[in-house]
Write the structure tokens for this entry.
Amino acid sequence: MTHPQLKRIDTNLPGVCVIEPVVHGDPRGYFFESFHAEKYRALGIDAQFVQSNVSRSVRGVLRGLHYQWPHPQGKLVSVLEGEVYDVAVDIRRGSPTFGQWEAAMLTAQNHRQLWIPEGFAHGFCVVSDAATFTYQCTALYDARADAGVRWNDAAIAIDWPVAEPLLSAKDQQTPFLADVPMDKLPVFTG
């Protein structure tokens, strides 16, 4: 008898991938492993998480595009309640995919996760009435390294599912990618 396996779905951005866990369900509910170091390592995600965060947002909220430099964070993100359109943008200077983005629908029903390696900006938009979102991070939050790129940067051209999102004051004022000094961007290391 074979058992279903954890599944990695690669995107067009090297390193960014969707993870589909094995969900065990019956009339009582469901169970799945949200992280297992050995299994994720076998999929090419060798991460040690040092901080875990949860946020709750209402429909139309857009958070992002956020990153840290220096002290970059890799993030394994998922949704516990609701639905979000989740986005990763390659902002690593020197990368062949610099300025390109990928998105995934993460929902409480599909249990999918998105792995965003260090060096990528991250953001999401809530498309359900509300969403509870969880982040496992490979580095601690560092306010001095906190940075962002404008959510609607035309040079990146993300196809967001909302035209007029609810934004924080901080996210309304982040710079366009072309206006970020190169020494304030992560470095592509191949």
Remarks:
- The chain has one domain: 7-184.
- The domain at 7-184 is CATH 2.60.120.10 (Jelly Rolls).
- The longest strand covers residues 51-58.
